[in-house]
Amino acid sequence: MLDIILIGASISFVIAVILSISSVVFHVDEDPRIDDITKLLPNQNCGQCGNPSCKAMATAILDEDAKLTQCKPGDEEMRQEIKEYLETHPDEDGEFTKVKM
Ligand code: SF4
Questions:
Q1: Is the torsion defined by CA of 57, 59, 61, 66 positive or negative?
Q2: Which atom of ligand 1 is nearest to the CA of 41?
Q3: pTM of the model
Q4: In the chain, at which end, N or C, are there fewer CB atoms within 10 A of the end residue's CB?
Q5: How far are the Cα atoms of 4, 7, 13, 30, 50 from residue 18, in angstroms, in the given order?
């Protein structure tokens, strides 16, 4: 019985080490603007914009694949805030995202 517990604990430890190393090796820096824009969206995650979540919509906005008016719960004030944010926050290469209203 003790053998089975030790084998199980050993396997769990090896898997934990592999996952820890993988999380460091395969870490991808996310554009910090995604979270900022997500916070400016209504955060209802309703999908009316054609994206599965507000975070996905924020990513689509930054990829210039979405218009701000696609967010149905969003109002003009929200669109202006996002527009002003994007006009003052370039990507890491200094490029500004083209805002689609
Ligand atoms: S429509 Fe607006 S509130 Fe709904 S998921 Fe899309 S961005 Fe979020």
A1: negative
A2: 7
A3: 0.77
A4: N
A5: 21, 17, 9, 22, 37
